[in-house]
């Protein structure tokens, strides 16, 4: 069994949220949004170009696709820029993040213990475990995760930590 203890900082939480954001951007749901929305807007632009003879149909399709990609990318970029303020507010509000946390893991699972409580998980409880440069996130769902700052782990522990992605 491996054990580490850490006290999370706002920077640790920001690293976890940024890694989770990057993982979300690579999800099938986001890719479907780009492809589906792009195809829909391209088809609408093609229909408008064909109906009103504004520009050639292929150019209209490219313009529609380009607008959709730019629009969706701008939304995601603005959400990424909001992360530092959002994380600072969450860190200030969620007092459990201020406590010292002890993490223990073995082949069967992982547990988190602090002065506020104890949680224990089997590895199969996580839909994805991602190791980033500054943190490891253990995703229970798209909306809920636990994190361990990399700084709390030795290089040997970091290398041996189970990862699904």
Description:
The chain has 165 residues and is α+β, with helices and mostly antiparallel strands. It folds into two domains: 2-8 and 97-160, PH-domain like; 16-93. The protein is 51% helix and 23% strand. It has four helices and seven strands. The protein has helices at residues 10-25, 28-52, 57-93, 155-160; strands spanning 2-7, 100-105, 109-114, 117-122, 128-131, 135-139, 145-149. Strands 1-2-3-4 form a four-stranded antiparallel beta sheet, with no helix packed on it. The protein has a three-stranded antiparallel beta sheet with strand order 5-6-7, covered by helices on one side. A hairpin with a 2-residue loop joins strand 3 and strand 4. The longest helix is centred in the middle third of the chain and has 37 residues, at 57-93. It is elongated and about 70 Å long. The model has no long low-confidence stretch (mean pLDDT 94).
Task: Map the helices and strands.
Layout: E1 2-7, H1 10-25, H2 28-52, H3 57-93, E2 100-105, E3 109-114, E4 117-122, E5 128-131, E6 135-139, E7 145-149, H4 155-160
Antiparallel strand pairs: 1-2, 2-3, 3-4, 5-6, 6-7
Keywords: Membrane, Transmembrane, Transmembrane helix
Domain YcxB-like C-terminal: 105-161
Pfam families: YcxB
